[in-house]
């Protein structure tokens, strides 16, 4: 990353790598290299700025695709406040998934 300590840059790179992986999923052998890079960037973004909801949302999504369900759920639950600030009202689909499951119910938003 051009800014190795800027969490939003890593979150953006994680999203870009994840989309690159998604573009190969229709193939018999999807290219998992971009998925692994997405995981690295998402983890780094979360390390750099634990309050960055986009980083936690991206990490959770990538972990689900990688098959690390428990880690994905634990990260979402432990950073519910950051996700609530990101998602509440802005992304109805995410709101429905996380809100219905109670993941960020009662999270401090502010």
Commentary on this structure:
Helix 1 (7-22) packs parallel to helix 3, helix 2 (33-48) runs antiparallel to helix 3 and helix 3 (53-66) packs across helix 5 (80-87). 67% of the residues lie in helices and 0% in strands. It contains 6 helices and no strands. The protein is globular. The protein is mostly helical.
Which structural class should the secondary elements be placed in? mainly alpha
Rg calculated over all Cα atoms: 14 Å
Uncertain segments are 88-110
Distance between the termini: 29 Å
Q: How would you state the average pLDDT, rounded?
A: 75
- Which H/E pattern describes the elements? HHHHHH
Biggest beta sheet attributes? none
Backbone shape: globular
The helicity comes to 55-70%
Q: Tally of extended strands?
A: 0
Percent of sequence in beta strands = under 5%
In short:
The chain is mainly α and 110 residues long. 67% of the residues lie in helices and 0% in strands.
Topology:
Elements: H1 7-22, H2 33-48, H3 53-66, H4 69-78, H5 80-87, H6 92-101
Helix pairs in contact: 1-2, 1-3, 2-3, 3-4, 3-5
Describe this protein with a few key phrases.
110 residues, mainly alpha, 6 helices, globular, disordered C terminus
């Amino acid at each position: 990353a051009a800014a190795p300590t800027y969490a939003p840059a890593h979150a953006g790179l994680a999203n870009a790598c994840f989309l690159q992986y998604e573009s190969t999923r229709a193939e018999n052998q999807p290219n998992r290299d971009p998925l692994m890079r997405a995981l690295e960037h998402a983890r780094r973004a979360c390390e750099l700025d634990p309050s960055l909801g986009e980083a936690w949302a991206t990490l959770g999504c990538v972990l689900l695709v990688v098959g690390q369900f428990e880690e994905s759920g634990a990260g979402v639950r432990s950073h519910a406040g950051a996700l609530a600030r990101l998602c509440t009202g802005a992304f109805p689909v995410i709101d429905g998934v996380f809100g219905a499951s109670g993941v960020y119910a009662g999270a401090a938003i502010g």
